Amino acid sequence: MNIAVVACGSTANNWQEHKSKFDLVIGVNDMMKFGTPPNQLVVIDSPKRFTPERMDIIKSTNAKFITRDDQWNKIMPKYEKVNLQQFTKHLKKGHVYSSKTSSFVALSLAFNQHATDVVLFGVDLNDHATFNPKNRIRDYELRQYQKFCMMLKDQGTNVSVSSQESALSSFLNVGMPE
Fold it and tell me: Which of 3, 35, 37, 168 has the highest Cβ tally under 10 A?
């Protein structure tokens, strides 16, 4: 199964051009700003973390809404709550792992939905307010992604990025599934 994980970084701006290559699209936060809704939308942060503009985009979804935060129940009454487990050094199907970014959770969900190939769109970690080259937390998150993606590959899930502009392209292939 080919799954796209679409986050909010600038390299997601053309993901719709590739939508037909994917069986499932898992979006993150207000990724619908790029125009096309996902099948599933993962929002890990609480509602108060989003500006009114971003909240309007999130609320406009008809996608399956997945969160860990019960504060969403008044805004998105039909949500699925997930329990997250911090990713350390083990990978087991059935567990939903987290690190520091919502797209990490979305990647874990893709694995649990039997993905054989996952392409990350907009998981850039370059122009994010927190995860950018000037912040050491970015280095930690890159190491987490690298370790996680190696373990996913060992269990039959190949992960790539959509653009060389993603910081993850330093250890992941760039490209689309066949």
Answer: 3
Helix (H) or strand (E) holding 24: strand 24-28
Q: What percent of the chain has pLDDT over 70?
A: 99
Instruction: Write out pLDDT tens, residues 14-57.
Output: 999 999 999 999 999 999 999 889 999 999 999 999 999 999 99
Distance (Å, rounded) from C-alpha 160 to C-alpha 176? 8
Q: What is the number of alpha carbons within 13 Å of residue 98 lying toward its C-beta?
A: 14
40-42 and 24-28 strand pairing: parallel
Would you call 111 exposed, middle or buried from its count of C-beta atoms within 10 A (0-12, 13-18, 19+)? buried
Q: What dotted CATH number matches 2-174?
A: 3.90.1480.10
**Sequence ranges of the domains in the chain:** 2-174
